[in-house]
Amino acid sequence: MIRKYEITNIAHPQYPWLHRIRALRDVREDVHVGDLGGFVQSEENLSQDGQSWVADNAVAAEEAYIHGDAILWDYSCARGCASISGPSRIGGNAIVEDYAIIAAGYVHGDVHISGNAKLFANAVTGGIPTVMEKASVYGELGGEIEVHETAVILPGVMIDNPTSDVIHIGPDNIAIERKFKRESSLLTPLPGFQPKQRSAMKKHHRGEER
């Protein structure tokens, strides 16, 4: 296996036991050989396989593990025993901690994903949740869901959206954004559908032989 990155001697200015990584090969479209990345505590934090990456000033520390195609950027942080994989994007000042699992999701802002939280793709639509601004998630979210402002998803709460509509969850309300094609009240025929022609009915006039 060709190693994806190495850990340099460039220490984090606040946490000197963390060090920057450097790409040993082209990892993804925007990460090329020689590019510096974010900070890790050890190689146990970032897989040497796949396209996963820790970029900018992001941190993966303690027993957190970044793998698959996941990326941390900006000043985001994965710590504790958090696991981040799949098509996940973690940015801003987001913190993923404790035993949280992000298998698919977009997280950005001053967000906390904590406890036994889970973010995942819906099995029907493939849609993934978005958590932004100052929201916190302790429960489980799947599918097209957007959690924003200061909304909190409490422990034990599980919302898995199997539709293409977007569920917006704020601190005081929940709203549904219906997709454009679903707004119409008209029905759509199947491809190649041809309506049956009605046969002409014989008209019988009074006095005609039946």
UniProtKB/TrEMBL annotation:
Residues 199-210 have a biased composition (Basic residues). Residues 187-210 are annotated as: Disordered. InterPro entries: Trimer_LpxA-like_sf. This is Transferase. It comes from Hydrogeniiclostridium mannosilyticum. The lineage of its organism: Bacteria, Bacillati, Bacillota, Clostridia, Eubacteriales.
